[in-house]
């Protein structure tokens, strides 16, 4: 976990406390993490030292005689689902940021394998439906035949999309996110040192392995601070992703939102004038709300710079930490 | 070490550490870690609880190494609590020691594996 994520989540769980108390607590933890990082630990290691997150929150709430169960009760399961999804996206971005080239290569290789599997399965699905399709092609000029054909098309399409989305989720959950924990082991200078010295007698001549281990040792020596500045390729990938998300998701969503707004105004005007268009109006409003939610979610996760007072706290301490590292 | 045992003793150690001198959070954690094995995550909640029970006053002091630090100072109520806990601790450990010595001195033929 990065410092910012930890503080943000802590902030969320302590909402029942007043702002002053919350900021006080967050400041203490932020300061503690900074001092650990100055000693050479990574943010992950500093935060791991706090132990189980839920136990931590429970202990803090008990200090104010707040029933911890009261604070975590989510009467709104959709809200908590969205929040968990947000955490999932944040963790994925964190993991991407902290990838070294070797891990990124492995991830891509696994992604390619998954892609092949997905293609094979969708090919299979096509084959499954083709007899039905073949039969219906004879009837595509009849209304029923046409409807059934497009229905099959839609179902096939949704199945394939579902498959692709699941494959991506699977890739992230089982191959990308674990690198967040792996980082702790690889970062430990003792472990890396031991690996290096024990490996050298075995393959002294293999330059590829040696440079790889040296790169890992160098990374371990530098305290990691969330955004890994050392690999320009990773940084490029990060900004490319941001740009792609903006162009292909955010822009269309915003355009859709605006056009829906216009349509909604027209629809409501029509309603006022007496046209019986309740159904379409509600539909427009519904889709509009969904687009709005999507835009807000993406904005929050990928672009937000002033998320909560937690981030403000992290920012406040940051310039001083960098100053110390300059010594 | 037994965790329930640790919880009670932790309060005693923290109070004693701060009684000696006003200290800030990170300093307190390191001092306590010298005395007993403890999870860093449990210290801040403990400090919060004891502050809310008015055993500590807190104040901010400028620091040369970063943002201002929050210092903890023992209140009279805290000093009283420390005295009470110390007394309880010494009484308790004295009785346990006495008991263990007595049992050791007594007939041990009940222990499994001991030669009859």
List keywords for this structure.
heterodimer; A: 327 residues; mainly alpha; 14 helices; 82% helix; disordered C terminus; B: 116 residues; alpha+beta; three-stranded antiparallel β-sheet; 4 helices; elongated
Largest sheet of chain A: none
Helix residue percentage of chain B: 55-70%
Order of helices and strands of chain A: HHHHHHHHHHHHHH
What's the total helix number of chain A? 14
Indicate the radius of gyration of chain A in whole angstroms. Answer: 26 Å
| Proportion of helical residues of chain A | over 70%
The chain-level mean pLDDT of chain A equals 73
> Which of globular, elongated, flat, extended, rod-shaped describes the shape of chain B?
elongated
> How many distinct helices of chain B?
4
The computed structural class of chain B is alpha+beta
- Give me the Rg of chain B, rounded: 19 Å
Number of strands of chain A: 0
Structure description:
The complex is a heterodimer of chains A (327) and B (116). Chain A has 327 residues and is mostly helical. Helices cover 82% and strands 0% of the residues of chain A. Chain A is built from 14 helices and no strands. In chain A, helix 1 packs antiparallel against helix 2, helix 1 runs antiparallel to helix 14 and helix 12 runs antiparallel to helix 13. Chain A is extended. Chain B is of the alpha+beta class and 116 residues long. In chain B, a hairpin with a 2-residue loop joins strand 2 and strand 3. Chain B is elongated. Chain B starts with a helix and ends in an 11-residue tail after the last helix. At the A-B interface, helix 2, helix 4 and helix 14 of A face helix 2, helix 3 and strand 3 of B.
Give a quick summary of the entry.
Chain A has 327 residues and is mainly α. Chain A has helices at residues 3-13, 19-38, 43-48, 53-63, 68-72, 77-97, 101-137, 143-176, 178-187, 189-202, 207-221, 232-272, 278-303, 309-325. Chain A is built from 14 helices and no strands.
Summarize the helices and strands and which ones pair or pack:
The complex is a heterodimer of chains A (327) and B (116).
Chain A: H1 3-13, H2 19-38, H3 43-48, H4 53-63, H5 68-72, H6 77-97, H7 101-137, H8 143-176, H9 178-187, H10 189-202, H11 207-221, H12 232-272, H13 278-303, H14 309-325
Helix pairs in contact in A: 1-2, 1-14, 2-14, 7-8, 10-11, 12-13
Chain B: H1 3-20, E1 23-24, H2 25-35, H3 40-52, E2 56-63, E3 66-74, H4 76-105
Antiparallel strand pairs in B: 1-3, 2-3
Helix pairs in contact in B: 1-2, 1-4, 2-3
